[in-house]
Every structure is written in structure tokens, then in C-alpha cells.
Design goal:
33% of the residues lie in helices and 12% in strands. With 155 residues, the chain is of the alpha/beta class. The longest helix is centred in the middle third of the chain and has 15 residues. The protein is globular and about 40 Å long.
């Protein structure tokens, strides 16, 4: 697994951590969920498509927004992705995540975006906070080579 496993953690410290794959080695967690549809597999991570943008939204970005300033497209992206999170698949993932966190586990949700400001993982974090989760964006003290080539989720 690419993260440090936490030993002797109690339930009150269990939480969800979001971050970039590039910081994965410095995230203290028990389990990694890769919330991307594309890109290389992160070793030891489970792919969780319920928290990833749909292929249609991904295509919308690639075809219409990729070359534009985020201020021009982020509002539309945010509305569309938040609507996608209102699915049965996402609710099932939320309940699985809740069971893991309530059992005392810290789960890392990672994608390939270096900055969360214009990234779906910030929207997933808000979605989870609205459902009572403690969610923090991991801030790596310095870049750490994850051993995985850096790509954007919008390649």
C-alpha cells in the first residue's frame, strides 16, 4: 500500500483524507480509494468510480473547457458533478465509507490533480462533509515521488 498505516488508531481520529497521488506516501491512512476513471492504477488502491466524474463530464471538459480559464467552466462543472453525486452508486459508496470510518479506519481519497481548487475531489469532500464526515485535504510538506507518472485526470 502507498500510505503509512496507522497503528492503534481510535474511532475519534478516524476520518477521510483527500489528496493527490503525488502525496500518497505521506498520507497516514488505512486504505486508499482512487477516485478516477482513467489514468494508471495506484498500487494498493481500490478504484471507486462513484466518486469520479462520469465519462460524459470528462468529455465535456476535454472538448469544451480544457483550454479555458477555470473561472469560465468551473461553475458548470461543479453543478454537473454535484448532480452526478446524487446517485445510488454514490450513496452505496458513502455507506461503505461510513462503515469503515466508524470502525476506526482512515480512508484516503486520491486523484491525479495536484491542486484541489478546481478538482472534483474538493466537491467529493464537501459532499461527504454534508453527510457528517470529517474530511481534510492533505498538504504534503514537500513533493514526494509516488513512483507514478504525474498525469491530470483530464488527459
Amino acid at each position: 500500500m502507498g500510505c503509512f498505516l496507522m497503528n492503534g488508531m481510535n474511532v475519534s481520529n478516524a476520518m477521510v483524507v483527500t489528496g493527490s497521488v503525488s502525496s500518497i506516501r505521506s498520507i497516514d491512512c488505512d486504505e486508499i480509494w482512487q477516485i478516477t476513471r482513467g489514468g494508471p492504477d495506484v498500487g494498493g488502491a481500490a478504484r471507486v468510480f462513484a466518486f469520479a466524474p462520469s465519462p460524459a463530464l470528462f468529455q465535456e471538459y476535454r472538448m469544451n473547457w480544457k483550454q479555458k480559464s477555470p473561472e469560465e467552466w468551473w461553475g458548470s462543472y461543479e453543478r454537473q458533478f454535484n448532480a452526478e453525486l446524487q446517485s445510488l452508486e454514490a450513496e452505496i459508496a458513502v455507506e461503505k465509507l461510513r462503515a469503515l470510518v466508524e470502525s476506526g479506519r482512515t480512508i484516503a481519497l486520491v486523484c491525479f490533480c495536484k491542486d484541489s481548487q478546481y478538482c472534483h475531489r474538493s466537491l467529493v469532500a464537501e459532499f461527504l462533509k454534508d453527510r457528517g464526515f470529517i474530511v481534510e485535504e492533505h498538504q504534503s510538506p514537500r513533493p514526494i515521488d509516488s513512483g507514478i507518472a504525474q498525469v491530470t485526470m483530464f488527459v
